[in-house]
Specification:
Layout: E1 8-10, E2 13-15, E3 22-26, E4 33-38, H1 42-59, H2 64-80, H3 82-93, H4 97-118, E5 124-126, E6 133-141, E7 145-148, H5 156-168, E8 172-175, H6 181-194, E9 201-203, H7 208-216, E10 223-227, H8 230-241, E11 246-250, E12 255-259, H9 265-276, E13 287-293, H10 297-308, H11 329-344, E14 348-351, E15 366-369, E16 386-392, H12 395-402, E17 407-408, E18 410-414, H13 418-427, E19 432-435, E20 450-451, E21 454-455, H14 460-465, E22 468-476
Parallel strand pairs: 7-8, 7-10, 8-9, 10-11, 12-13, 12-18, 13-16, 15-16, 18-19
Antiparallel strand pairs: 1-2, 3-4, 5-6, 6-22, 11-21, 14-15, 17-20
Helix pairs in contact: 2-4, 2-6, 3-4, 3-6, 4-5, 9-10
């Protein structure tokens, strides 16, 4: 049962939009309407900006230990409610409960991390060049934040922005995806119940283009944070530049994975199947371009297909489900086009490649082998359950192919050699590199890409600094 009431949160009050306009929230596993989502008016957005301005003045003046106490209580509430929130996340997003509930637990851990780290936002004393002068460097909250979060991680994408902003002493207006709104609402209720003052957290929904254009034109906001596609990132960066707004952008990826000749093949296959098909491949760090050494290639393709063919596909609420649906019909159309193009150009379709019958937006786990470089799927992020597998022979060759795209979010490699691992990770052009495993996202480590995958980091020390500005004070004693 989905019983989350989807409302706007503006200045500490939950309500509908000014003109009561709504859109439908659809369950991607059943296609049933779950709820309605309010669509913000210009007046709603103006109120949210004003609230964030007032909320910032209150929140920044609280001590770090006061902010810590409230955020820690919010983290406890998120953890207490994680089963319910995780269930709602699964219903609106489609991923399995085995993924949904841990994602909410991750939100609790991120909130605790930022609460703790906010107490350690240290400045420093710089030795002066003359007597009677004291030189001090301070870290201050940058100001109200406009944040935009994608639908693929309804909890993780939202919490990094809320907790990061609050940990630094900022207020925030968050626009979560209209396709997964309930998770953000539930998380915000935890912060509100923990005692966050009115206006510090504001949640808005509506037409994405309208909201970003309106919020980013406001002089209130001093920071923009986005999780979204590269195309959206280009647009929002242009809009943020009009007010010289600081930005953090976590954008698209097209992650290469290199399996060297000395890799533990069983370990690599088990790890890669699990991470390729989690959230139906709708993960920005998902391995998408598989470069397998020619000595292992045939065995890898056979073993990978065997494992992928055994995945249990279905409603994320059903026991044992390992892969749920795509988020919407548009994703099915995109996958059809990419697979058709690859096969037409000579790729071998070894598994799947089609929509699944029945209600819901399900697409079968798909394995393409011998994919030619000219196939669109090797240059366009598939964002779905498709593995494109290709052989390689030499080290320099595979590094060049892995780095051939403008994206640079995550890259992976598998090898039993420490020296080969060091050589590979040094040359991969990416913000994050995983060696022999895929876990590149934790609360305490920086998460972010380079090149067309964005700039700046969320989580870790870098995530807190993204919401801070530096002030230098030099004082002469009279």
């Amino acid at each position: 049962m989905y019983d989350e009431k989807i409302e706007l949160l503006i200045d500490g009050k939950w309500r509908q939009s000014g003109d009561s306009k709504t859109t439908d929230l659809i369950n991607p596993a059943t296609e049933e309407v779950l709820a309605t989502v309010p669509v913000c008016t210009d007046a709603d957005l103006a109120e949210a900006a004003d609230a964030a301005d007032r909320g910032f003045r209150i929140w920044k003046n609280k001590t770090a230990i006061e902010r810590y106490a409230i955020m820690s209580k919010a983290a406890d509430l998120i953890e207490e409610r994680k089963e319910r929130i995780g269930r709602h996340l699964t219903i609106e997003n489609g991923k399995s409960l085995a993924e949904g509930v841990p994602e909410v637990q991750f939100a609790a851990e991120v909130t605790r991390w930022y609460a703790e780290e906010g107490k350690r936002a240290y400045g420093r004393i710089v030795p002066a060049r003359q007597a009677n002068v004291r030189q001090m460097v301070y870290k201050e909250p940058v100001g109200p934040v406009a944040a935009f979060a994608a639908w693929n991680f309804p909890s993780g994408n939202v919490i990094r922005k809320i907790a990061g902003a609050l940990g630094a002493g900022c207020s925030v207006v968050v626009k979560p995806s209209e396709e997964t709104p309930g998770t953000a609402v539930a998380l915000a209720r935890c912060f509100q119940d923990a005692g966050v003052p009115a206006g510090v957290i504001n949640i808005v929904f509506g037409t994405p283009d309208h909201i970003s254009k309106t919020l980013l034109a406001s002089p209130v906001f001093k920071k923009m944070s986005l999780t979204g596609s590269t195309e959206v990132g280009r647009l929002l960066q242009k809009r943020a530049s009009e007010t010289i707004m600081r930005s953090t952008m976590e954008l698209g990826g097209h992650a290469p994975v290199i399996v060297h000749a000395d890799a533990d093949l069983e370990h690599a296959m088990n790890m890669l199947v699990a991470f390729k098909f989690r959230n139906a491949g709708q993960v920005c760090t998902s391995p998408t371009r598989f470069f397998i050494h020619e000595s292992l290639y045939d065995a890898f393709v056979t073993g990978f297909v065997e494992r992928a063919s055994k995945l249990k596909i279905g409603n994320g609420l059903d026991e044992g489900t390992q892969m749920g649906p795509m988020i919407a019909p548009r994703r099915l159309d995109a996958l059809d086009a990419l697979i058709g193009d690859a096969v037409d150009k000579g790729a071998s379709l070894n598994l799947g490649g089609k929509r699944m019958e029945g209600p819901g937006y399900f697409f079968s786990p798909t394995v393409l082998a011998d994919v030619p470089e000219s196939a669109r799927i090797l240059s366009e992020e598939p964002f779905g359950p498709i593995a494109s597998i290709m052989p390689f022979s030499g080290f320099d060759e595979v590094i060049e192919r892995a780095n051939a795209l403008p994206y640079g979010l995550a890259s992976f490699c598998f090898t039993s050699s420490s020296s080969l691992a060091m050589k590979t990770e040094a040359l991969l052009d990416a913000g994050m590199v995983g060696v022999n495993h895929m876990m590149v996202s934790t609360p305490e480590t920086p998460f972010g890409g380079v090149n067309a995958s964005g700039f700046g980091s969320e989580s870790g020390l870098e995530g807190l600094e993204a919401f801070q500005r530096t002030k230098f004070v030099t004082e002469f004693a009279l």
